[in-house]
Amino acid sequence: MGRSEGPRERTRTRVEWKNRLERALEADDLLLYLQPIIDVPTRRVVGAVALVRLDDDGVVVPPSEFVRVAERAGMATRLDHWVVRAAVAMAARLRRIEPDFSMWINVSAQSVSSEELGTALLANLADHGVPPSAVVLELTETSPVNDVSAARSLAQRLRAAGVRLALDDFGTGFASLLYLRHLLFDFVKIDGEFVAELDTSDTDCTIVRSIVDLATELGMQTVAEHVGSPGVLDVVSREGIALAQGFGIGRPCTEDKFVTRHLTASSKER
């Protein structure tokens, strides 16, 4: 039976999702999809965001349906550790095809306050021979960081090792400016809410331009999320945004499809 991706016809309760996720973590049967990230000036694929999925009776379930459950159940750190292991192993394989490939790994605010995540990430990088600079760790603002001091310590440790850091969904999450003040990021990912209609909304253009200016002043690069059309990508380019992702560039897909659609094609173009 093939897998399909999308919402289930029936919704699970929170307890059912918790139990299903617990079984998936124990059995190591979660899935990792990749969404391409391009260098805007050259339009070349330079990396990918690692996105966890759950195979629920043949339906590939996106994280929006179970990640919050994991956070509330205290399982977010376990889920993040699984993603780190799988993403680093995948990065090692993909860098054999594209040596400059970077893997962007989403982690929850809960994990960022724990030194264990940094230890696990660096150990996995060493085990697979992946340079720390090939990984960008994204802080996802689905919940506030509980211990900013601990998060700062982890960020400093990872950056000293060469791992780059990104603030995800900037502009809509918890205390975005507070994070920029206390944590050193290499990238700011502009939330898709402000990007999706850039080609038609002057207000969104003004907001995005102000974010780009702020990031530039702080020495950070910007990434546009939810780029859905060539028109939006043109505006992203005009505004000086360095990197971009979205359905207009490429949808999340399996590792094999990612190689065929993006890495192989990108290599042939050079």
UniProtKB/TrEMBL annotation:
Residues covered by the EAL domain: 14-266
InterPro entries linked to this entry = Cyclic-di-GMP_PDE-like, EAL_dom, EAL_sf
* PROSITE patterns xref list: EAL
**Which GO-annotated molecular functions does the record name?**
cyclic-guanylate-specific phosphodiesterase activity
Identify the domain of life. Bacteria
* A Pfam entry, by short name: EAL
Q: Which PANTHER family does the record associate with it?
A: CYCLIC DI-GMP PHOSPHODIESTERASE PDED-RELATED, CYCLIC DI-GMP PHOSPHODIESTERASE PDEF
This protein is called EAL domain-containing protein (Putative c-di-GMP-specific phosphodiesterase class I)
